[in-house]
Each structure stands twice: as C-alpha cells, then as structure tokens.
Design brief:
single chain; 306 residues; alpha/beta; Rossmann fold; 2 domains; eleven-stranded mixed β-sheet; 10 helices; 11 strands; globular
C-alpha cells in the first residue's frame, strides 16, 4: 500500500476557515439545509432519525420524516370482483398507518432541529416514486442499508439512487452507535462519473471531517499505474476545497468492494463515500460488484450517488 498526504491549499489551511466550526464552537456542515429521512414505524427508525438529527444540528437544517405505509395490494384484486377485499385492505392499512403516525408525531417532538412529518400510503411502486420525488427536492436522503441479513426497502433505496438527485445516506440495520458528524471519512475512488458525483455531493462532510482518506483499491489484474494521475487530480481538487486528505492505494484485492470495506475497518472510518452502480444493476446481481458489497455488508453509514 502507498500513501500520500495532501494538505489543504490556500486559506483553508486554517481548519476554522474550512467550515469545520460554527460560532458556538460546534463542528458544522455548510451546504445542507434540507434533509429527508425515511421512516416506517419499525425499529430502524431510531438509527435513521439519530443520524438525520445529528447532521441537521451540525448543518442547521430542517428534517422531514417521510413516512411510508405500504398497502399490500395483489394485482389480482385490481380486476372486477376484488373491490370489497381491496377496500378492506386499504381500511386496515390506514388504521395501522394512523397508529404509526401517532407514535412518530410524538417522536418528532423530541428532535432538536426544526422538523415535519409527511405520510404516504400506497403500493410499493407508488411509495418508491414518491420517495424519489422527495429526493429531488432535498440535500440529503437518509435510509437504511437495504440488503444483508434483513431487507430494508431495497426497491425504495434503488429508486432513490436512480431517480432522485440528492445523495443517499444508508445507515446499517441495527446501528445503535451514537450518531455524530463523521470525523474520519473514507472516499472510495474510481475514475467514473458516479464517483465524481459522490465526491461533490459529500463535500460538506469532507470539509468538516478531521481525516479524509481517498482510497483506490487495485483489483487483481488491474492497471494500477493507469489510475495514479486521475486520482492525484482528484486529490488536488479536494485540497483546493479545503479538504485535509490522505491518498491511499491498496493493491491486490479480488473484489473492489471487499477491499474498500476492509480498509474502512482498518482506518476506523465513521462514513464511506462511494459512487453507486458504475456497472448495470443486472450485471452486479449476477456477477457481484462494489455497490452490492456496500449495500449488503457495510458496517458504517455509506453516502452514495449514481
């Protein structure tokens, strides 16, 4: 493994000028004003809300809790003769949703930042479309990591990735660690459009972090030398934006995603930033890929863009 250090350039050499601290001495995030967090009444609401609240406090941002209440409608019920059963399913779903909404309304009063609750009832496909719409009118969308031992709204997460414009922060299921503004961020580097989008979207976190590691994982058989110049260009770009970073090149991994996650654990990273689906989703489902590894195995929050 090789390592290069790139200090911030210009006035950003003073960490306070890079936007790390607010007037009250707290570390802050500049450039985030509106956060949407997905909630559904499950136990995973707490870690999602904790991360959304922590980021909102640091950024002085508003939090919108986007509550999804799925109505499990079979296509067979949409044909003539299914009206009665369909109406009963909607009735029961709304009743369940009302109970969840009451609980979440009470929970939202405990959040420190300004906040609101927005509820949507409907079929999965409709909820996914509404989630993507929310992700086109905010600065950050917070959800749960979708795959692994448990599945947490994978269709919604992937719709937000492909049809939304905001970056999505994916919190590991069962994550009960205190949510703080990340101090150590691992930025998974690849010479792709998706990676560039993730870099720009994560700039508030990168500028506020104490340690940023720009990491290139050389898969077995890859041309590592070919990657060096573009990676150095990215490092200079980040340094000019006041990011204090270290360039790390990690060789000899069979799978990029596994190498990235191993490095994140070694660095004790609080957050991983990566581009999503540089290859097609079908190819990643069949052959595997870095995105699928992160969506399935990441033990720390992952910020992604497509």
């Amino acid at each position: 493994m090789t390592t290069d250090l790139l200090p911030p350039l210009g006035d950003a050499s003073d960490p306070r000028s890079a936007g790390e601290f607010g007037s009250n001495g707290r570390r802050r995030l500049a450039g985030i004003a509106d956060i949407v967090v997905h909630v559904d009444g499950s136990d995973e609401d707490e870690p999602r809300l904790a991360w959304a609240e922590s980021i909102a406090v640091a950024a002085d941002a508003h939090v919108t809790a986007f509550m999804t209440n799925e109505v499990p409608i079979s296509p067979l019920l949409l044909h003539p003769g299914g009206e009665f059963v369909l109406a009963e399913i909607w009735k029961q779903a709304r009743k369940t949703g009302d109970q969840v909404e009451v609980q979440l309304t009470t929970r939202m009063t405990l959040l420190e930042p300004l906040n609101s609750l927005r509820r949507s009832d409907g079929r999965m496909v409709d909820l996914c479309t509404l989630a993507a719409r929310q992700a086109r009118a905010c600065d950050l969308f917070v959800a749960s990591r979708p795959y692994g031992a448990e599945r947490n709204w994978p269709a919604l997460v992937e719709t937000v990735l492909f049809e939304g414009t905001a970056p999505i922060l994916l919190v590991p299921p069962g994550n009960r660690e205190p949510a703080n503004v990340p101090r150590t961020v691992l930025l998974g580097w690849q010479d792709t459009r998706e990676c560039s989008r993730a870099i720009m979207a994560s700039m508030p976190f990168l500028r506020a972090a104490e340690n940023v590691h720009l990491v290139a994982v050389a898969e077995d058989g890859s041309e590592e030398e070919y990657r060096r110049d573009p990676m150095a260009d990215t490092g200079r770009y980040l340094a000019r934006h006041g990011v204090r970073l270290e360039l790390r090149r990690v060789p000899h991994w069979a799978h990029y995603g596994e190498g990235l996650l191993t490095e994140a654990k070694a660095l004790d990273a609080d957050m991983v930033v990566a581009g999503a689906y540089g290859h097609s989703r079908i190819r990643e489902r069949i052959l595997g890929g870095a995105t699928l590894d992160l969506l399935t195995q990441a033990e720390v929050p992952v910020l992604m863009c497509h």
